[in-house]
Amino acid sequence: MRSQPNIVGVHLVFEQAGQVLLQRRSPDSPLAPGSWHVPAGHLEEESATACAVRESEEELGVKIDPQDLRLVHVLHYRDSVAAIPRIQLFFRVLSYGGTPRICEPDRHTALAWHPYAALPSPLVAYTAVALTAIAVGRPFAAMGWAA
Q: For the whole model, what pTM was predicted?
């Protein structure tokens, strides 16, 4: 068997009073246009926590100390369209400075808190899998794999 590269996605799970913060993707987005999703980005030449800190500032204008991040879920995802599978890391944000706001209006059209028990639709499919698992304390899920 040969090794296969994976794209690494870093996702931020902001929670308050049983709700999670979601952004609605632009209708022009190449991935899941108009769908709700947690703040996220791809790992660049940085650690996963450094990526989370960077993305929180870029997308929401909030500051996070890496010590205030907890890895709560890993999703190994294979899309039927994309050739490269993805490892999706979901970090719970324990504390942050500032008020979340839309900082990339070309990429996101709305920002809102949603109860775990009533997540909005449409929701990015793998995000729904991950948030459902996080809500019940499951640290790992796989999606899109034959076995």
A: 0.95
